[in-house]
Amino acid sequence: MEPVLIVGLGNPGDQYAGPRHNVGFRVVESLARTLDARAVKSGGDYRLSAAPNERRALLLMRPLTYMNNSGTAVADVLERYALGPEQMLVVVDDFALPLGRLRLRRKGSDGGHNGLLSVVFALQTTEFPRLRCGIGVPDMPARRFMADFVLSPFSAGEQQAAERMVSAAADVALTFARKGLAPAVQQCSL
């Protein structure tokens, strides 16, 4: 059976470990711990691990190219493993969704997310599943402050909701890998 790729978008480095923008990384890291995934030697600008004892091979990826250049690493892994875009799920943060809300779609635009834009550009398609994780809708009226918002950590009062969301998103991603898109979409709406 063909492998499934779960891609968590984020920024590498300790200085980016806590911000809202790294929710994708946190989801993939949570899955890797839960499944006892092992690192795969890659040679690329990404961290790749594989989950053992899965009916379908499950690859977990974190691009190390920084958010705005994630597409190059994603394209490399898809080519290396001869996967089509429909065989992956991209997990990203979304400031247009309330904190904790998950939205899974089979395809769609980048929605103003630079990481998704990079993936769309590198693959030359919007035809790939994406799981958007709500990081909270900012109070700031001006778009120029958006970078400050997404690069800020969750407040103390938001931490529990953020952890629940990461756990729920990891569960949805695992359902996608094991059962397919439709059951994962249904799980998001529960």
Short description:
The chain has 190 residues and is of the alpha/beta class. The chain is built from six helices and seven strands, in the order βαβββαββαβααα.
Which features characterize this protein?
7 strands, Rossmann fold, 6 helices, seven-stranded mixed β-sheet, alpha/beta, 190 residues, 36% helix
Structure write-up:
The chain has helices at 23-35, 70-80, 114-123, 146-150, 159-179, 181-188, and strands spanning 4-8, 38-39, 46-51, 58-63, 88-94, 102-105, 130-134. The protein is α/β, with parallel strands linked by helices and 190 residues long. The protein has a single domain (4-188), classed as Peptidyl-tRNA hydrolase (Rossmann fold), CATH 3.40.50.1470. A seven-stranded mixed β-sheet has the order 2-3-4-1-5-7-6, with helices on both faces. The longest helix is centred in the C-terminal third of the chain and has 21 residues, at 159-179. It is globular. The relative contact order is 0.19. The model has no long low-confidence stretch (mean pLDDT 91).
Principal-axis shape equals: globular
Average pLDDT reading = 91
How far apart the termini lie comes to: 29 Å
CATH class group = Alpha Beta
SS summary, helix count: 6
Question: Would you list the SSEs in sequence order as H and E?
Answer: EHEEEHEEHEHHH
CATH superfamily: Peptidyl-tRNA hydrolase
Map the helices and strands.
Elements lengths: L3 E5 L14 H13 L2 E2 L6 E6 L6 E6 L6 H11 L7 E7 L7 E4 L8 H10 L6 E5 L11 H5 L8 H21 L1 H8 L2
